[in-house]
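Mods, move this if it's the wrong board.
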Amino acid sequence: MVLSKELRAIVPHHPIISRFKPFHGEVPGGYILDGFLGTIVREECTPGVADPEPSTVCAPYPQVDEDYFEWIDLLESVVSSGGSYTMIELGAGMGRWSVRAALAARQFKPGMPFHLIAVEADPAHFDWLRSHFLDNGIDPKEHQLINAAVSDMPGQVQLCIRGPEGGNCDLQPNEWYGQFLTKDIEFASELEGQGLYEGSKVKVHQNGWKSVAVPSVTLTSILKELRYVDLVDVDIQGEELNVIASAMDELDAKVQRLHIGTHRLDIETGLRELLSSHGWRCQTDYSVGTTEETPWGRINFQDGVQGWVNQKLGSESI
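Not the wrong board. Structure tokens:
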């Protein structure tokens, strides 16, 4: 639920958001403004109607919804960073939060080097990821874009890319970013393959879901190549507990903050127990499928939200 205009007038934004200036400038024709910092998205990548001609836009601060807490974690990670900034986005889609982080870093600390690691399994979304970086002035060659699913084991997995015909998830890639890994018990029986998806053979399962084979990587393998990470942003559709648990040693040693989109109550409980036992401090915790009171009003949460700070590395909230 978005706050009314009257409530927004009396409830100030989180202090970290007010430290950044909203974008004011031109949006190219065929693009949609994405976020208050000025990122732009091609119309083909997201539902919406773009102005075919360039337009001048004054962006508002973020609306108060479940994404608001992702903004808080991201901006705090930028402000608390040192001489460089590193972010990992797991389940990156078209790289929305990676690109937002880059623009935040550029605005708050001009000239500061930053390094983005964006991991996305869906082949269509991965193509858009490269384009989204370029459209916002970020050279993909200077960062690490990984076309794979994140799992607790390396190898190959099946990624559901479309739901049963006529169902809520029978959608085009630009209409749905909730792709998830299949589970053996749910997809034990398969029908004959059906066509190609971005060059990959499609399997149609007995329950109507469609999947493609994709490589999988572990968070541990990604972190092993890095010295320090300001933020790991996680939205991996039910794999979050397995992936984080499998990488706790590296997370403890190198990662300052976690922002996690959660998808089941039992996963949320497991994350609380795991991260608390390793000395991480929880600064945001709202459950999947709930409507909750927050300091900025009453919000409907489709996914759950957890934000954690690694106290071993010594940072506090800004």
